[in-house]
């Protein structure tokens, strides 16, 4: 080839390459910036990664709350290569999740939780006929065993006594209460599900606590690999594999208790716990030879969901409660004084006492508001085209409920960053409790809400009825800095517990 021709050919290849790269960049920008007609507005985002870099600079729920001020209470965002709609504030959350619940009850199929659970159980199942049936069954059965009723008080208070006995051994000394709070909340679920509790020094029981805690931590990290699939090619990234491994370990922990129930199961006998009722329902369906969601796979997964939703979340909220009471000893004293004045120390606190303890109830509401341990809830998807806030959201769109925004809105709450239980009181009565959305809203709200509320009230009031918590002498006050995983929890801290 002649030199001139060779040079022209080289220029041609260079120009072709530049044009290809430019076209690719334009195409990627188009994918990153384009939105369907009448779709909620939002930041453009970067090619491939979307707005993930922005979300990683700060707490994601705080970033999304700030973006809502720039765009709208209903706005869109690119997470990796997926468009998602974010719901912010009381009005948008209620319009979508309550008034248009039929359209917002789906679940994404590509999140780590959905993949690991394979859409089984109650948290990540679709809101189809099978999913609705299993959810109704679970709610009905939990109520049968006392959720939301005084009959469950005895079990909770019995467990609290075991917990306080363990705490009293360390009276006057610095102690991290995390393990004690987890021991109690896990055993309450075990009593309802398996009909038995475990000793706190039982190594198998402690293994369960470790596995579930690890699941929570790993799941928060794993989400990144789902929204940015290229990260899965990096050799050191094995988070999803670890979650699968942890989930299988939890299944193996649960299975012996199920096997024991199956071995002694008698359809004619009165069921003693959740597993008994489930086996009875499953057996009746098998006898009728009708297709059903009541199978052994869903049994295991539902129990896992009950552990995930009903143990560590409540224990974490209690950790936040004690943290704020230690940082505000004047508020702690008001709660203790109210409990002692209205109930005394000679009998157990009861749910029937709740209406006599408005300040205590206000403190619990304020803890739920300011901690908001699941600030982005569990993601939803739309089941059909729907309009919210005047915007058109197509079917199968991922939806992120930003519960944090509803709890920190300065137009609703005076000084939202401050711990002020008085915001829930007016003329000595509790107000605005309906504005707390910690358990989410609508048809996919937390199944165990009533159980959690009973636990929070009975455990916290019993602790304060007989104990005082303070910052250990010589130690710095604990921080309220938040650690973000699948839930939000405080940094480890120690308190000094004095029994009265």
From TrEMBL:
Q: Does the UniProt entry include the keyword Iron?
A: yes
* InterPro entries registered for this protein in UniProt: Cyt_P450, Cyt_P450_CS, Cyt_P450_E_grp-I, Cyt_P450_sf, Cytochrome_P450_fam2
Tagged with keyword Mitochondrion: no
Provide the transmembrane region boundaries: 12-33
Cross-referenced PROSITE patterns, in alphabetical order?
Answer: CYTOCHROME_P450
Q: Where is the signal peptide?
A: none
Gene3D superfamilies per UniProt: Cytochrome P450
Taxonomically, the superkingdom here is Eukaryota
Q: Keyword annotations for this protein?
A: Heme, Iron, Membrane, Metal-binding, Monooxygenase, Oxidoreductase, Transmembrane, Transmembrane helix
Q: What's the family? A: Belongs to the cytochrome P450 family.
What protein does this entry describe? Cytochrome P450 2U1-like
Please report the organism this UniProt entry assigns to the protein.
Answer: Saccoglossus kowalevskii (Acorn worm)
Q: From which lineage does this chain's organism come? A: Eukaryota, Metazoa, Hemichordata, Enteropneusta, Harrimaniidae
This chain is encoded by the gene named LOC100370125
């Amino acid at each position: 080839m002649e030199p001139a021709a060779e040079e022209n050919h080289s220029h041609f290849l260079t120009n072709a390459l530049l044009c290809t790269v430019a076209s690719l960049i334009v195409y990627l920008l188009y994918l990153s910036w384009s939105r369907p007609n009448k779709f909620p507005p939002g930041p453009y985002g970067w090619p491939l990664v979307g707005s993930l870099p922005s979300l990683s600079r700060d707490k994601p729920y705080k970033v999304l709350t700030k973006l809502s001020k720039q765009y709208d209470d209903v706005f869109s965002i690119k997470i990796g290569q997926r468009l998602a709609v974010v719901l912010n504030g009381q009005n948008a959350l209620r319009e979508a999740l309550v008034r248009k619940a039929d359209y917002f009850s789906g679940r994404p199929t590509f999140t780590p939780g959905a993949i690991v659970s394979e859409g089984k159980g109650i948290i990540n199942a679709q809101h189809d006929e099978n999913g609705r049936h299993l959810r109704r069954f679970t709610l009905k059965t939990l109520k049968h065993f006392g959720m939301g009723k005084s009959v469950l008080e005895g079990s909770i208070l019995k467990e609290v006594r075991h917990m306080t006995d363990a705490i009293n051994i360390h009276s006057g000394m610095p102690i991290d209460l995390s393990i004690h709070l987890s021991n109690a909340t896990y055993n309450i679920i075990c009593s309802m599900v398996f009909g038995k509790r475990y000793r706190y020094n039982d190594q198998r029981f402690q293994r369960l606590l470790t596995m579930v805690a690890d699941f929570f931590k790993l799941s928060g990290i794993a989400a990144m690999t789902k929204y940015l699939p290229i990260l899965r090619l990096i050799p050191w990234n094995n988070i999803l594999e670890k979650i699968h491994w942890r989930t299988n370990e939890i299944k193996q922990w649960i299975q012996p208790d199920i096997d024991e129930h199956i071995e002694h199961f008698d359809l004619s006998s009165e069921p003693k716990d959740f597993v008994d009722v489930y086996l009875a329902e499953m057996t009746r369906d098998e006898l009728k030879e009708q297709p059903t969601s009541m199978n052994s796979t869903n049994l295991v997964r539902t129990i896992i969901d009950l552990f995930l939703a009903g143990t560590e979340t409540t224990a974490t909220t209690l950790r936040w409660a004690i943290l704020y009471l230690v940082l505000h000893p004047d508020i702690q004293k008001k709660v203790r004084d109210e409990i002692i004045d209205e109930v005394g120390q000679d009998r157990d606190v009861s749910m029937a006492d709740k209406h006599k303890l408005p300040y205590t109830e206000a403190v619990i509401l304020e803890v739920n508001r300011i901690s908001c341990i699941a600030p982005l809830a569990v993601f939803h998807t739309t089941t059909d085209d729907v309009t919210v806030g005047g915007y058109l959201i197509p079917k199968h769109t991922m939806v992120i409920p930003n519960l944090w925004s509803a709890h920190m809105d300065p137009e609703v709450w005076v000084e939202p960053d401050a711990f002020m239980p008085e915001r829930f009181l007016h003329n000595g009565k509790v107000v605005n409790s309906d504005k707390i959305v910690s358990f989410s809203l609508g048809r996919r709200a937390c199944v165990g809400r009533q159980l959690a509320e009973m636990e929070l009230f009975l455990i916290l009031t019993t602790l304060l009825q007989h104990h005082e918590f303070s910052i250990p002498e010589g130690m710095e006050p604990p921080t309220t800095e938040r650690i973000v995983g699948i839930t939000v929890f405080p940094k480890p801290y120690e308190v000094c517990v004095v029994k009265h």
